[in-house]
Amino acid sequence: MTSVLDAQTSANAPVSATISNPGDALAVFDGQPIYLQDLPSADQVQIDKMMQQVYSVQLRALRAAMEHRLVEAEAKRQGKSPEELFRSEVLSKVTEPTDEQVKAYYETRREQIKQPLETVQENIRGALKNTAIQKAQTTYVQDLMQKALNDSSLVLLVKPPKTDVTADPLRVRGETKAPVTIVEFSDYSCPFCRAAESTMNELLAKYPGKVKVSYRDFPLREVHPEAQQAAEASRCAGEQGKFWEYHDALFADPKKHAAEDLVANAKALQLNQAQFDACMASQRYRAQVDQDVLLGSRAGVVSTPGFFINGKFVSGAQPAAVFEKIIDEDLKPATNAASLR
User: Fold this and answer.
1) Rounded to whole angstroms, how far apart are CA atoms 256 and 253?
2) Alpha-carbon distance 22 to 24, whole Å?
């Protein structure tokens, strides 16, 4: 049965209407706005989940729509056709599967294949190569998208819902009771992340006692294959009370994240080498790094760096002014309250 409210809503709402932003009023009664937080808590939880699902679908569809445009733009920039770009940037990076790889694939699926290796090995080789090509293409397009987001040639107007992304108390710079929290999702091998570090330091200096920064890992493993072990190494250094020192060493040269470089950083910081080596060998922090990536992905992070300023999302290595505008807005209530005392 349709209520008067349902009918009025349907009559006034455009066909493309979606769930409101949490900051927008849902209705006004007798001059007083009604917000999402005024609804029953169980409904708030359900709406939050729906908003996140809508954002995820929008983002997935946008990625698919952008792929062709990103490739065409890059081909034009390089003076090539899209086909020539594909051959030079994707196909040329894929090697033929070795006999050992073909055999290993066959051995793990022998029961399902039920044919001699000699009969199916070329089919397996072709399938392995096609998979490698698809992976290389995905990685290349992801890299193009990250560059476009960070140089602002691509601006995502669709925004994730405001999200309460928790800070990691073990990786915080600034006053722990600061009213503004910036949660940073970053990749130690990402040049844009390196550029953003100076912005974070600038903000901490400009807002002493008012802003804190919490670091979380978001290694883009396919684009930066050494970023995962760099993230794990920073946590191993954190065991010895030198997370931020190691963090700074990693960003000092994003191209030096090979295993021997990670060991060299540990020596330079005078860490207990045996403890550090054992920590790295055990991969004890791999699961925690994965949890950071999952947290960021669920919150809407698609490239690095990504930031949440008291839950408000900022994508890319943006100028300090972008962060300052949000920070100043969030500090206004505290400033106003103090002036009334």
Assistant:
1) 6
2) 6
Is 15 contained in some domain? no
Q: 256: domain range?
A: 172-336
Residue 265 lies in a domain: yes
Burial label, 212 (beta-carbon count in 10 A; 0-12, 13-18, 19+): buried
Rounded CA-CA distance 80/108 in Å is 41
Q: Do 199 and 144 share a structural domain?
A: no
Question: Could you tell me the two tokens for 75?
Answer: 């081909």
- The per-residue pLDDT for range 87-127, each reduced to its tens digit, is 999 999 999 999 999 999 999 998 888 899 999 999 999 99
Length of the chain counted residue by residue: 341
How many domains does the chain contain in total? 2
Q: What angle do CA 13, 19, 24 make, to 5 degrees?
A: 90
Q: Could you read off the pLDDT of 128-173 as tens digits, one per residue?
A: 999 999 988 988 888 898 888 888 888 888 777 777 789 999 999 9
The burial class, CB within 10 Å (0-12 / 13-18 / 19+), for 253 is exposed
A 10 A CB-CB count for 321 gives 8
Q: What is the pTM assigned to this prediction? A: 0.65
191 lies in a domain? yes
Mean pLDDT of the chain: 87
Distances (CA, A) of 233 to 239, 274, 290: 10, 13, 14
Q: Are residues 219 and 74 in the same domain?
A: no
What is residue 6's predicted lDDT score, i.e. its pLDDT?
44
Claim to verify: residue 46 and residue 80 sit in the same structural domain: yes
Q: How far apart are CA 263 and CA 280, in angstroms?
A: 10
Confidence of residue 12 (pLDDT cuts 50, 70, 90): very low
Residue 337: is its pLDDT beyond 50? Answer: no
Question: What is the maximum alpha-carbon separation in the chain?
Answer: 84
Closest CA to 303 of 225, 218, 232, 236: 218
Domain-embedded: residue 271: yes
